[in-house]
# Entry
Amino acid sequence: MSLAAYCIICCRRIGASTPPPQSTTYWRDINTFSTIDVEDHECAVWLLLRKSQSGDRTARLQAVQEMSETHHYQYRIIAQACDLRTLIGLARSKESDLRFFLPPPPLPSLNEDTCIEEELRQLLASLPQTELDECIQYFTSLALSESSQSLAAQKGGLWCFGGNGLPYAESFGEVPSATVEMFCLEALVKHSEIPTHCDEIEANGGLQLLQRLYQLHKDCPKIQRNIMRIIGNMALNEHLHSTIVHSGWVSILAEAMKSPRIMEASHAARTLANLDRETMREKYQDGVYVLHPQYRTSQPIKADVLFIHGLMGAAFKTWRQQDNEQLLTEKILEDDARYTTCWPKTWLARDCPALRIISVEYDTSLSDWRTRCPMERKSIAFRSDELLRKLRAAGVGDRPVIWVSHSMGGLLVKKMLLEASKKPEMSTVINNTRGIIFYSVPHHGSHLAEYSVNIRYLLFPSLEVKELSKDSPALKTLQDDFLEFAKDKNFQVLNFVETLPTYIGSMIKLHVVPVESADLGIGDLIPVDVDHLNICKPKKKDAFLYQRTLQFICETLAKDLED
# Structure
């Protein structure tokens, strides 16, 4: 039965007048109701749809929840008839069936004389190239240069990636193409941080092009991750929400949300949260990911726990369970209690469901040889200001907060709190900070920089590594200022420290943070028989490392979680 015919039958049964049938009928076109036969189960879905467009926000939220929890045989009717706000709400409802979401509309055909790589290059070239910071200029120039070389090489029979003429082999074609696409996507990620550039990306067909690329690279998480970052950044601009939804991205995001891969689900959750202005005030900028709750929830959220990684870390991999040879050789599901790729999302979220758990990601490097942007020499002070601004936009400071940090991440936390104390608009961040956990944080410096003159890998240590030097005046000032500040504010502190050396590469064996450097001067200092990388990776859920962390969080937030 067609949607229009079903509309007419339902409206007649509930005593409403109906407009003449149209080829496409939406619920918003049916706005006249008289008597309602509540026993007619076939009309229940239409009543829910009407309720979802109520002027009462509470009624709208209840309607979306009822839709997601009730299994209708009219999934497709709801998909065609619900409005943008309801569709996003369904995508952010854990129990929603994917049949609620229509497939994305057909993508425009590629021109016969072009390829997706060329279209990606044209999109990038169409964006404003003036008044950009050095890193955006770098990524854009690199992407346009490499894509030009690859296209010329394909036409000429050679592959000139990186300026080297390599014999072109048909079987190797996908590898260079994916690499060039990565350059373009990295540049687009940077551009999408600028609102006016998001408008240009949308106007030039970027939403459809990125969708095509996303579907082509289902087996390439790195490409999909960067595409998700771009869409997530575009979703920060509310005037683009309608276009993002109508281009079909919500159905893709709803499916990604149900992925067992934490990284994929978290990127989708960030984008959908930015689209959901019905229940969300916060906005999640690039690099800020909510690990829990990722769906809409009736559970009151009473406090925030923030995870800040260190050098060469990441928002997800830093906080995985410690690797185990036996576990790595077995096929283990993500929700299996024996192993997790992100213990804050699985273990901590289950033990403390009233917490909002956020993990932050930022680029770091050990050596300037390996930095992603040669011009990006960001100091701890610069990074702390950048992260503090992003976290405040995410609502950090509105609730009680515990900070959890590893290595250099702890120095960033200290700097962020000191800077926040100087800004009246950031006062809530200070007033609501309850405690801090430091996993092997080099409060008094690290041996990393000292090894740079003898180790080829660290011959040109990055600015981050230089700032960890034991004789760094900035590090000493940060330690002295924060210690006095933390005592004055009576922050609760827990310090862990490694006791085993760490292998960096295949040649370097180094005790990164010695016990004396991990001693902040307040709070317990607990040595653990692991290396620097594993100090924040518990072996299992009942291991001391996790249980002591959980105990600290629960005790520090006890009063807040009871209220």
Notes: The radius of gyration is 26 Å.
